[in-house]
Amino acid sequence: MFKFASCDGCQLSLLDAEDELLSVANAMEIACFPEASRTMSKGPYDIGLVEGSITTHQDAERIQKVRRQCRVLVTIGACATAGGIQALRNSQDVDEFVRVVYATPQFISTLKLSTPIAEHVPVDFELRGCPINKYQLVELISATLAGRKPTVPTYSVCIECKRRGTVCLAVAKGVACMGPVTQAGCGAICPSFQRGCYGCYGPMETPNTPALTNQFRILGQDDQQIARAFRAFNAWAWQFRKASEECKRT
After folding, report:
1. Which fold has domain 2-146?
2. Model pTM score
3. Where are the alpha helices (DSSP H) in 17-168?
4. Mean pLDDT, to the nearest integer, of 86-97?
């Protein structure tokens, strides 16, 4: 397990999978997981899980070393797959942020962009979410050990709403919801509590973002509100980034 710029939430999801991990525990050895164990075995490793985005020059150099150490490299969570919350800075003046936030800006060394791991090294599989679904992570580990492709849904959150019998908030109550363009995986938690989807799992396989933008406008959302909806947990995912930029240009 390798950590870059992140909140550790996805690592905690793995630690939370206590009973589920027993099914694969005998088939693997946790070689390097600082948050879970003091054991630090040197590579190379069969599977490397990477949490977090690349935000510094040191990160950019380190991820190259990580890639060379791992036979299979998997990115987990919105930060690693789409730049995360910290990618919100990508459309603004980072130097100005540093000047306003830090008392001694000269001590801060950071890149202009917060970028996903795949923009720096080849990635074998991406596991979405903020945080990830622990059952999907166990499935990923099991599939990798078995030499098969992980079974992870690529359809939208709307399918999950239908399966659990949740009435569509956009249709029934006029709530702005990112569910139609967001990949499933959370179990449609927010809509089940009468809140629109926030897009935590990033773009689904074929997101129709222009149609959702038009629907948001019908619901009374202005361009700033729509751009903000796309610029959340997965702001640097190219489908969401394009949709937000188009709103800013209108």
Report:
1. Rossmann fold (3.40.50)
2. 0.91
3. 18-25, 57-69, 78-82, 94-101, 134-146, 157-164
4. 91
